[in-house]
Specification:
seven-stranded mixed β-sheet, 9 helices
Length: about 250
């Protein structure tokens, strides 16, 4: 139903990174609406990511009917800019994929971007599910993790709580996902070391963390609410929630 009957579909990506997911969605829109123009705007603060996204577009021969406009800003900077200009462009589709962890004021951010939706527009939020191992790790085993350098730990219930307070309609779709973290438990394994860095948000976690903290975290990762065992491998639950806001 997205953009039905329109000659141009306006899309806004918030925190789009290097653009791979954006282009997948744009191609789905192209297939659903052949011949329709797609006006795609992107909010992304990281200059390296913006450059990589532009390069991806330059190499794609199938995007002639898609226009691109990058805003090298954070979501809050974009919001401030829009409010200062007093102009309010409306979008048929806005997506925020795995980016709300870094947003300071989630209530204000969701309220603003919801106000940017056109009639029949949709906002897609993808965030870690409450059924994920991350949720258990953050809630039950936070003492096993170093303090976060920036951002905060949130899962889908934090988002739906805000949407309820805003009084907007939404639906939640669960997306099961597993991540093989077996190498995290192999002493001296380089891949396992990188995985632990990612899990903790800490560079060289295994090399810098006290042995007791390392052991507690490895024990927590093996708990059934975080991981399951399959064919001798340890599979961390990486389940996602896809929240579609009307």
């Amino acid at each position: 139903s997205l953009g039905n009957g329109k000659s141009t579909i306006n899309v806004l990506g918030v925190g789009s990174g290097t653009g791979e997911q954006d282009l997948k969605m744009i191609r789905i829109l192209q297939a659903a609406h052949p011949g329709v123009l797609i006006d795609n705007e992107i909010i992304e603060p990281n200059p390296q990511h913006v450059a990589a996204y532009k390069e991806l577009v330059n190499q794609a021969p199938d995007l002639q009917k898609v226009s691109f406009l990058w805003h090298q800003l954070t979501s809050s900077e974009y919001e401030q800019q829009v409010k200062e200009k007093g102009t309010h462009k409306k979008f048929d589709f806005i997506h925020m994929i795995q980016m709300l962890y870094r947003v300071e004021d989630i209530h204000s951010t969701l309220k603003f971007f919801h106000s940017c939706l056109d009639h029949h527009g949709k906002l897609l939020i993808i965030i870690l599910s409450d059924s994920s191992g991350w949720a258990s790790l953050w809630k039950k085993y936070r003492h096993c993790l170093p303090p976060p350098d920036s951002g905060h730990y949130i899962t889908s219930s934090s988002i739906t709580d805000v949407l309820k307070r805003l009084g907007v309609e939404y639906r939640v779709y669960e997306f099961p996902s597993g991540w093989d973290i077996t190498e995290c438990f192999i002493e001296g394994d380089a891949v396992g070391g990188h995985m632990m860095d990612f899990l903790t948000g800490t560079k060289d976690f295994l090399g810098t963390a006290p042995p007791g903290l390392r052991q507690r975290l490895q024990e927590a990762l093996c708990q059934p609410e975080c991981s399951s065992k399959k064919d001798g491998r340890i599979i961390f639950s990486n389940n996602l929630s896809m929240v579609v806001v009307e």
